[in-house]
Amino acid sequence: MSEAIRLTQLSHGGGCGCKIAPAVLAEMLKTLPQAQLFPDLLVGHETADDAAVYRLNDEQAIVATTDFFMPIVDDPFDFGRIAATNAISDIYAMGGKPILALAIVGMPVNTLPIAAIQKIMEGGASVCAVAGIPLAGGHTIDAPEPIYGLVALGLVHPQRVKKNSAARAGDVLVLGKPLGVGILGSTMKAGKLDAEAYRQLIDTTTQLNTVGTALGALDAVHALTDVTGFGLLGHLLEICRGSGLSARIEAGRLPLLPAAVEFAKQGIGPGAIGRNLASFGDAVAFDAAVPEWQRRVMADAQTSGGLLAAVAPDSVDEVLALFHAQGFAAACVVGELQAGEPRVGVVA
Question: Is 16 assigned a catalytic role?
Fold first, then answer.
């Protein structure tokens, strides 16, 4: 089925590479009203956090998010799995536990066979089952390009919400998954991805960030986000701006998908890399020793990427142990946060 119709050829973009560039999005959002009139809204759009959080009572807050995009892979079932995993990740990124999902489905019904659409939806439902939540309904439209995703809802204790704006100077940055998803997606779209590279792509993008719920219970985890369409640098900048801090990243410590390295050195990657780098402007400074391909990897649009945690230095081992125990073998320290103007410096 996926060989007859390549999903990635039906859309102009794929995965979180479809996101509007950070600078453009900021311009679009700047006229929206602030949330001061809603004291129970614990997290709104002000710091570009991963999900909205609304306090229900002293013990519970609801976490609400939506995420959808066009295909990053050709296989319909895998596309559904990736999109669902990516959407649910925003619940974990707030330290929450998912409880419910609704499907968002836009499909070119005159182009794409019903059987393929069914596989996409089945893929999403399979991930909800793994997460232990119902896929309780949703909404469908006839669209010119395939679009799939979820509305995801979760619960978190109001005092355990992990905002991207609560990091502290001296915090150590821990990244949970390797980078390179967008690069492999672009390679696949070009017909150059072998079976092993595809396995790496699917394994990382369908791994639920379940460790976020456990991280939410740790006082030493001060801030949390997931790395998606704006790349590592873009989402780290959101932490810096929200928390009023600067960051230092060591490029040589970054975990990378092995199959993505050579393609990155060839300059392969989604158009979102260039858009992201342009949006960062002088808020990101690279040491001269950092090669161009590594700079691009750090701006690569990740789909269903890893959690990025700002952790008190004396609890780093505990946090890494949590990641590793839940199957995030690549999790490692990649940098630190410091007092200073909101910016990111990258050294070799």
Answer: yes
